[in-house]
Amino acid sequence: MNGEPLVRWDWLFAHLGPIGDRVGQHLYLATIAVGIGFGISFVLAALSIRRRRLFPLITIVATGLYAIPSFAMFAALVAVTGITTLTAEIPLVLYTLVLFIPNIVAGFDAVPADVLEAADGLGYTAGERWWRVELPLAVPLVVAGLRLATVSTIGLVTVSAILGDSFGGLGYYILDGYQRHFTTEILVGGLLSIGLAALADFGCVLLQRFLTPWAAARAAVR
Amino acid sequence: MDIFSATGQWLADPLNWQGPNGIPARLFEHVELSGVSLLLSACVALPLGLWIGHTGRFSWLVVSSANAWRALPSFAVIGLLVPFTTMIDPNLGFTLYPTMIAMIVLAGPPILVNAYQGVAGVDRDLVEAARAMGMRDRQILLGLEIPIALPVLATGLRSAAVQVIATATLGATFGFGGLGRYIVLGDANRDDGELFGGVVLVAALSLTALAVFTLLERRLVSPGLSSRTEG
Question: Considering the entire predicted model, what is its pTM?
Answer without folding.
Answer: 0.90
